[in-house]
Specification:
With 354 residues, the chain is α/β, with parallel strands linked by helices. The chain has 2 domains: 7-156 and 326-353, Rossmann fold (3-Layer(aba) Sandwich); 162-321, Dihydrodipicolinate Reductase, domain 2. It contains 12 helices and 13 strands. Bound molecules: L-homoserine. L-homoserine (HSE) binds at residues 157, 182-184, 210-212, 218, 223, 322-323.
Amino acid sequence: MRVDSSLGLCFIGFGNVGQGLARILVRKERELAERWGFAFRTVAVVTRTRGAAVSRDGEGLSLAELLARVERGEPVGNEHISPVEAALLPQTDIVLDVTPTNLITGEPGLSLTRAALGSGRSVVSSNKGPVSLALAELKELARARGAHYRFEGSVMSGTPSLNLALESLAGCDVREVQGIVNGTTNYILTRMEEGFEYADALREAQEKGYAEADPAGDVDGWDAAVKAQILAAAVLGFPLPLDAVERTGIAAISRADVEAAAKRGKRIKLLAKVARTPDGVAASVAPAEIPLTHPLASVGGATNALTFTTDTLRDVTIIGPGAGREETGQALLSDMLAIAAAERNSARFSIKAG
Ligand code: HSE
């Protein structure tokens, strides 16, 4: 990877999250270069339904122009190139996998990630499918090829969760993680308490870019379950299959249930929990009635919260956005900045070592 010039970015997917990241990059391009030493060129943008664009002259695509095209309902470009071909273009340094999550096959993100890491390119992703299905394999592939695989955006969007536990809490033994990890269901439960019907609240969550491409993934608890699985593997170091996460969603919860809980001084929240046990790790997702005095009761809308129970610091809680276009774009940005910093440091180390 080049460290003394701009990094070549290849977007695979240009939906809610890809556009959210692009907006941040357009707005902050100068600040990123001046304050964070991060300069980039957009090598390619490949989409499933909006065509593809490739910078053939090496100058880089204008993300502002691509966003304007999408806004006008036009394709981003008319190139015929597959996601893997774009990822492997010689100018690509970092592949941004912002394709939709498929928890069964992991595709198209999984093949793309394997190909990119296998070629020594780094991958930054908000896609939960490949992390769920192949984290150990992808981490090993990245290590073997001197590449980076980072996926902060797969849990709590840009609010630090994985990198908080793995980097800021480095050296702590995290024994349990518990909280609210799905923005869509928390938004729906909050709106139902305000008097909205379930279907209207879900539609709003979709309009705001919180929901998965198939919102059943949210309301049936799959999204929270896969986040619990990712926390178990990445933070507690204990991989477990997705079907080992006990899972109940919110589909059976009505407005009457939410109102009845409120009358009892309670609030219904979809809680995810992973905890060490004598045999390994137990993971679950289920709605729970919690008292209004409970710290999680005030976490409303698409906001998420996680409490990490550790040995040295006891409980550490983080609260922040759990879903959204720019909110998730921020996760990808922070992962890219971490890669750029790591590459600069390793270049310095090798200069000293040499
Ligand atoms: N559908 C997810 C949610 C998106 O609502 O939390 C963020 O992972």
